[in-house]
Amino acid sequence: MNLEQAHALRSQLFVPALSERFVDKAHERGADAVIVDLEDAIAPDAKADARRALPEVVRRIAAHGMPVFVRVNNDPALLDEDLAAALATPLAGVFLPKAEDPAQVRAVAERTRQAGTGLVLLLETPPAVLRAEALCACSDETIGVVFGSEDYANALGVVPTMESMHYAAHAVALAARAHGRAAWGVVGSLAEFGDLALLGRMARAARHAGFTGALAIHPTQVPVFNEAFGASDQELSDAAAIVATFERALAEGRGAVQHQGRMLDKPIVDRARALMARAGRGD
């Protein structure tokens, strides 16, 4: 998967590698991509079984036209074999959890480069957030960066609320976007699926911080993320009107023009064009 495709992903759904029920229905949930999980969703004594099952699981999901990622374990006893298994399959990319060390990122990135697939970094700890800029900059193979609010909150000994996660989420999004990477996450708790209104507020806050999508751990979260990180008909209509008004002004020799009570200039029009392009409505 390339950077442009990564930026277009509004939602990605985690699927445990050993859950037949979730694997079978993964393509029906409405997510833009699927992440087959070898890490948190797999018990320690089942890691080898999950790794062996991986090629067939990826094949089954990809057969429905879904982009498929794999989250490996960032554990010295597991990482090498997980990467070998993952990179032997046709993937959109590999998710590297607990990314903290630029040297490790570069080493993993070289393996993904040789396999012709992308790399996604999960920044989930205080050291990772403090090094976000360096981690986002250290490899051109990185297509996406994730803010892992749950592990980050645990490391700080706090509850992952919108308030407590505000600084770290903004720092990760800023670093990712400064280096052209897609940014995925919410400002708050990713574990929230009981209160979808709250989840929507966290997702919209993430979009306003610069995130381009989010990762779903439950199917009910997918439509919330698709809406929060997508473009509504009204937003697209407004964007089209902005572009049309500005183009008429340019044709008349003007570089700025009033539109619905505000001045339009190039930055505003560029933002409208980007929204339309993201929704496939561009020129």
From TrEMBL:
Database matches in SUPFAM superfamilies: Phosphoenolpyruvate/pyruvate domain
Cofactor dependency: Mg(2+)
InterPro entries noted in UniProt: Aldolase/citrate-lyase_domain, Citrate_lyase_beta/mcl1/mcl2, Pyrv/PenolPyrv_kinase-like_dom, Pyrv_kinase-like_dom_sf
Keywords for the protein's UniProt record, in alphabetical order: Lyase, Magnesium, Metal-binding
GO molecular function: lyase activity; magnesium ion binding
GO BP term (any one): oxaloacetate metabolic process
Signal peptide feature range: none
Span of domain HpcH/HpaI aldolase/citrate lyase: 10-219
Binding site for Mg(2+): E124, D151
Residues that coordinate or bind substrate: R71, E124
Pfam families with a match to the protein in the record: HpcH_HpaI (PF03328)
Gene3D superfamilies: Phosphoenolpyruvate-binding domains
Recorded superkingdom: Bacteria
Segments crossing the lipid bilayer: none
Name by which UniProt lists this protein: Putative beta subuniT of citra lyase protein
Organism: Hydrogenophaga intermedia
